Amino acid sequence: MQNSPSLPRVLALALLALALGGCGNRRPDQDAAAAGAPGPITTKSGIEMVLVPAGEFLMGDNGGEDGEKPAHRIGLSAFYMDTCEVTQEGYERLMGRNPAKFKGPDRPVERVSWFDATQYCNARSLREGLRPCYDRQTLECDFGADGYRLPTEAEWEYACRAGTTMRWSFGGDPGKVARYAWSKENAGKTTHPVKKKGPNPWGLYDMHGNVWEWCNDFSSDGYQASGESTDPRGPASGQQRVLRGGSWASSAESCRSATRHSETPRFADACFGTEAYGFRCVRRATPTIHPGADSSR
Predict the structure, then answer these.
(1) Positive or negative CA dihedral for 22, 27, 28, 29?
(2) Residue 83's pLDDT band (boundaries 50, 70, 90)?
(3) pLDDT at position 286
């Protein structure tokens, strides 16, 4: 009869198994579940969204580019965000056309201007019986409307970081970028279908790379040390709008959580970079209304 292993030996073996299981053997799609992120919900349009919880974070990066400084603490209300970049299939179904260069129904739509993105937001709102956020004449955003809009720059970075504080939502090791992003190093000079890389801790895909994502805000040279500290909405005016997240044409370094980019909202220079510009939508979180619910009840 064999002797039973001693308790210290059992504990040692258990710790060894745990260590081996945590050294890169877990799939990327298990990271969000491990972080306790709520599962996605489906809207009336059939699009998945995730509830981004209210909270605070340190926006910007004092060790990054000049436009990312100064890092400053921001508080945000809860909101819903698309789990993926708007796809070509979803855009064409609603808008009746597909402007993308790199065709594929489940690839992100690109070659869309900021103006195009806001028109999609309004059309999606009307399709679901919601009040559009963007004025048809001035394009001013009504943040009190229950329809869809582009995220503010602060909302975008908060959602991208998903409670993390390192350079990317998965940490500070650039060697792991390929696990979570399509960038210049691995994309092969093209976009790729959404949700093929690992999600961030809140279940959002392709926040790093694939296509730059339009934000609602006008661009600024940097962050002011003083100003709105809760639900900031950027400058009141400007010549360009903010894009975030990097793209298939960006270096891994340019796909960091704090990286900023900007472009004219209607593509004054239509020959530059437009095939790398896409977007995703957000909607304010109303406790009594589920994004997929019939609000007329």
Answers:
(1) negative
(2) very high
(3) 72
Q: How many residues does the structure list for the chain?
A: 297
CB contact set of 126 (below 8 Å; sequence gap of 6+): 132, 147
- 62, two tokens: 């004092």
Mean pLDDT of the chain: 85
Instruction: Please say whether the beta carbons of 104 and 195 come within 8 A.
Output: no
- Distance between first and last Cα of the chain: 71
Query: Cβ contacts of residue 66 below 8 Å, gap of 6+?
Result: 221, 222
From the list 256, 241, 210, the residue with the least C-alpha distance to 110 is 210
What does the block give as tokens for 21? 């299981």
Confidence of residue 270 (pLDDT cuts 50, 70, 90): low
SS3 annotation, the chain? CCCCCCHHHHHHHHHHHHHHHCCCCCCCHHHHHHCCCCCCEECCCCCEEEEECCEEEEECCCCCCHHHCCCEEEEECCEEEECCCCEHHHHHHHHCCCCCCCCCCCCECCCCCHHHHHHHHHHHHHHCCCCCCECCCCCCECCCCCCEECCCHHHHHHHHHCCCCCCECCECCHHHHHHHCECCCCCCCCCCCCCCCCCCCCCCCCCCECCEEEEEEECCCCCCCCCCCECCCCCCCCCCEEEECCCCCCCHHHHCCCCEEEECCCCCCCCCCHHHEECCCEEECECCECCCCCCCC
For the whole model, what pTM was predicted? 0.84
Measure the CA–CA gap between 294 and 297, rounded to whole angstroms. 6
Q: Which domains, ranges and CATH numbers included, belong to the chain?
A: 41-284 (3.90.1580.10)
